[in-house]
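Your task
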Amino acid sequence: MLPAPDRVVLRNVRQHNLKGITVALPRRAMTVITGPSGSGKSSLAFDTLYAEGQRRYIESLSTYAKQFLERMPKPLLDALEGLSPAVAIEQKNPTTSSRSTVGTATEIYDYLRLLWARAGISHCRKCGAVVKSDTVQGVVDALVGGAEPTSIAFPLPASAHRPDVEVAAQLRAAGFVRAQVDGGVIRLDDADAERRVREGAEVLVIVDRIAPAEANRSRLADAVATAFNEGDGMAVAVRNGDRRRFSEHPTCSTCGTPAPILTPTLFSFNNPRGACPGCNGFGAVLEYDESLIVPHPDRSLADGALDPWTKPRYEGRRRVLREVARAKDIPFERPWQELTDKQRRFLLNGVAGRFVGIFPFLQRLEEKRYKQYIRVFLRQYQLAKTCPACGGARLKPEAISVTVADRTIAEAAALTATELQAWLGGLQLPPFQQQVAVHILRELSARVSFVNDVGLGYLTLDRLTRTLSGGEAQRIALSNALGSHLRPPTWCVPAH
């Protein structure tokens, strides 16, 4: 017998069709359980070894945590010694969702989202210019050096324009003395200051007027910080009538278009903040297809060429179809494929009196999608087509406008695991971004390596998990188990 620390011992196992067997499994070795069908391979691996490992793990948790986990029955055996954390990988693909991809299943996409959120460069979705956020230090560096005095101000927030609020009085109470209203400077303690502030199209509250010399750097920084704080992240520097606007919020440096703050959820197609509004993050939309509506183009209208109206409940639609065909001189007995393009377009999309084309008819039925039979009826005439809004990327334009090394996250997800590993190996980031992303890149590279090590380097990260074979899904689970860093592992992988 092997020494106790180097073996897993099962004594007198009687689970299912096992007849009191005792077996010792060596650690740090691959053990294959083989035999004819019904000999008890799965009973030993899954129903005994794995079940006992899971049961012991769950028993170690608190009573509160146990209520959320599936409880496994205790297997029939006298003793099980030297058991480590157990991982069972089934021989089937359990995924049916269209939201799960190879990237999300292996957690590689989660680390990609972190990388793009921390080291990504945002571009304006309108003009393509770089989007940046201003900081107090950056604003001071941009202003210091001029000879003319500069007024640091902030635009009056829209929330202050209320008839029941004395704006000028509140600004005076906060310590502000002057404001620039439609280009002219006024004192906030003037008799008509309240009226002018209320009626002004543009109101800039002046925080300080200062010569932007090197010696005044500290005072300038205080003024800019106050302007950001009071102006909801906006500050304006006025010098000789010229204005420079600064924003703590991400804003296009060319056209001023605002951009969202980069967070991991912005790059998640499973989150409303990042999912494309056109397809809700699926990358495809369901559209009615003529080939499904007219499955037999060699049939005539009389023989039921328009399949939806062949159903018994649409007898009235068939009568209207016959009437409009007679009125529009459309041959009712001629095969669909022999009708002119104009006639086919009318039957599919036209509206005339009581007649509604087949496409508008089906679209109107969507108002009753809450009824299951309507959903089933409509679905048989729809095909999944690439979303025109995102081009299949699943994400909002704001997310697709962010790049790392000139590559968007959608382009990275379209790479195979082998290609992604090569790209990560040659990735060159600026020093600051490299420092921020060093831990993310290490974990990301490790996850990609595990996928390549189990032989799935040919899969793209945006491949739907439900399209994988059973063996591919099994190896995906194996790569996840390798990434969990369990030591030492006890694997339960059935032999084919």
Remarks:
- The mean pLDDT is 84.
- The chain has 18 helices and 20 strands.
- The first helix runs from residue 41 to 59.
